[in-house]
Predict the 3D structure of the following.
Amino acid sequence: MIIILCVLGYILNKINSIGYGHKIIGLMGSFLAVIPILFYILHYFFQLSFFLVFIYVSLVIGFLISIFFIGLLIIEFYQDKNINKQYSIIKKTKLLLNNGFYECQSCGNKKVGKNDKNCDVCGIKFTSDRLE
Ligand SMILES: [Zn+2]
């Protein structure tokens, strides 16, 4: 299961739950709490057994939405971990600019010289050059 989600993390675009998370949580709350409580109240007053079926169906849908949301969160955390790992490598490098100077990838200082081993502004120690 986790392996499948990690593979999906590579294939899919970057997922950000900030954009959709509240909507899914709202749906989960509706199917896991609001709808079952409404049907429970209806069942209490009218004593019709098919209201209980609606409660179970709603709980199953809510459970499936929960599983889907947890899967998306696992994919997102995995993507964030990879991005963070890539950034931690890149930030210790300097990038060649058109004017012959280099840019520190940690703080953005654009006055780093070719032979500088450290950034004068943030003090980070460069591990390698990126000549892109
Ligand atoms: Zn710097």
